Fold this protein.
Amino acid sequence: MAKTDASNTLKRLRNHYRLVVMNEDTYEEVVKFKLTRMSVYIIMSTVFVLMVALTTSLIIFTPLKYYLPGVGYGDAKQVKEYRSLKIRTDSMEQALQYQHKYLEDIQKVLQGNIVKVDTNKLALPKIENSDD
């Protein structure tokens, strides 16, 4: 394996290239650029940083932040409303489960599929009658 030198890498970054955009029908040069690898890296890095900055500023300085759930923004009224709706939804879900269980039990009774289990088996002491 050949070792890469730092000076060799820097030379490759500074080599000049030409980017030409041509019209396919007439082979006329529309645009041409003189580029190096270093300039391409700098341009791409700048575009990336600008896109991140634009997106971040768009979220921070506009009402868009209120629609993002993980950001943590939102006024107290919306948070209170959300909690209230969550509690109501949970209670409605529990009531629906109770109704479903009740209907299943009614169907079992109507079909005669009930098993009689005596849960009140008590060992009662016998009362002795003593007539004194």
